[in-house]
Amino acid sequence: MSPTRIPEATVARLPVYLRALNSLLDSDIRSCSSEELATAAGVNSAKLRKDLSHLGSYGTRGVGYDVEYLRYQISREIGLTQDWPVVIVGIGNLGHALANFSGFSSRGFRTVALLDADESRHGEMVAGCPIRDFGELGQIVREHGVAIGVIATPASAAQAVCDQMIAAGIRSVLNFAPTVLSVPEDVDVRMVDLSSELQILAYHEQRKAPHVDGEVVA
Amino acid sequence: MSPTRIPEATVARLPVYLRALNSLLDSDIRSCSSEELATAAGVNSAKLRKDLSHLGSYGTRGVGYDVEYLRYQISREIGLTQDWPVVIVGIGNLGHALANFSGFSSRGFRTVALLDADESRHGEMVAGCPIRDFGELGQIVREHGVAIGVIATPASAAQAVCDQMIAAGIRSVLNFAPTVLSVPEDVDVRMVDLSSELQILAYHEQRKAPHVDGEVVA
DNA sequence: TTCTGTGAATTGTTTCACAGCC
DNA sequence: GGCTGTGAAACAATTCACAGAA
């Protein structure tokens, strides 16, 4: 049923299901079981069914799910059936990669501006969008109704950029800078920490095979 | 105490604590309470103390933690006191950004090779490392004892790259391509999904403020 | 007294197993 | 018969609240 609040763990997996459904559609598969979709999404089928049950009852017992229909329902639930204008601040290699990344300019998202403090790069075109001055942030946010800001600056600039975003009215921030941002309660920050992920892998790798130079793991 | 297995949620936060400790050291702060460190890391102090209690008893009651000492203990626990040679495959904008990213070439990690299938880019220097042919993967892995591979290719190439990595002996993979990888049980894959993060933000943003064009949220 | 370390209580998530519908 | 949707059970993570060390 829709009225209930969807668990956070489920919300985090909805984008994965959406991608799996898209790839099934690419293969002209119009219908699938929870088992098939779960495999495509890399989870087990019980979890998938429980997750979907939080959105509503969109499958058919004994049959499975209609791929197109389920995709629409999940899209709607996430909010991708509406338009989300996004600004990216910090157009180094990472900002460049993000601007070109398909997930950032499709399916509900639209990059409306690329901002950088470095004057020498202003006017340069990246992914069909000119780099503009960071000072234009407020005006751009008002003009396009931007609700989501992406920070791809060095860590040293991130808090100041974030403060400006909030002053401009942005309340959802995706932070790629390796630093904790402090924000008011009503602002939502998600942090993508590239080096944390490497470190987590290293931790597990270390447990798997006791390494030559390290202590012996019990 | 160390012998017990550390909870996954705790492992995922250790890198955050490590960064917080580094930034305290940068400010010449040599000692801190759980409250201060928790604030710097963006968590609450009860969680921080519980997390640290899984590693051992490295604080002093009534006083707090020695920043340098705790940093060393966490580093050791994660495995950053040993050397982790890394290969990055796919040197587009994202691979470029990763190669230049400080977290990828410091604190235990060392990028030993950048590989790309595009011949025209071979020999090009990125972050002080030449781009080499993907076919050299096996040899490089053997030569340097690479245990961690990073995939920054388009989704269409990711599974093939992953298969080659596994054939070469890599058992920990960090995947930036937006696709699920299928791997044997003993291989550890972590997926960093840039567009999922945006979608999760959109979901919450949608709940915050019922938008003009969408359905009314109850 | 101050602040850590930790059992106990709470809250959240995953898995199980099967009732109910196609 | 086959497969979804879901209570109930098992497991994991977080928060509480305080005993105990410095």
Proportion in β-strands of chain A: 15-25%
Number of beta strands of chain A? 10
Which strands sit side by side, in order, in the main sheet of chain A?
Answer: 6-7-5-4-8-9-10
Indicate the multimeric state. homodimer
Order of SSEs of chain A: HEHHEEHEHEEEHEHEEH
Task: Give the class of chain A from helix and strand content and strand pairing.
Answer: alpha/beta
Shape of chain A: globular
> Averaging pLDDT over every residue of chain A, what do you get?
93
Helix content of chain A: 40-55%
Largest interface: A-B, 70 and 70 residues
Explain what you see.
- Two copies of one chain form a homodimer.
- By secondary structure, chain A is α/β, with parallel strands linked by helices.
- The first copy, chain A, contains eight helices and ten strands.
- Chain A has helices at 8-26, 34-41, 45-53, 67-78, 93-100, 137-144, 155-168, 194-208; strands spanning 31-32, 59-60, 64-66, 84-89, 109-116, 125-126, 129-133, 148-151, 172-175, 188-191.
- In chain A, the strands form two sheets. In chain A, strands 6-7-5-4-8-9-10 form a seven-stranded mixed sheet.
- In chain A, helix 1 (8-26) runs antiparallel to helix 4 (67-78).
- The longest helix of chain A is centred in the first third of the chain and has 19 residues, at 8-26.
- The radius of gyration of chain A is 21 Å and the shape is globular.
- The termini of chain A are far apart.
- Chains A and B meet through helix 1, helix 5, strand 9 and helix 8 of A and helix 1, helix 5, strand 9 and helix 8 of B.
- Chain A binds a DNA duplex (22 and 22 nucleotides) through helix 1, helix 3 and strand 2.
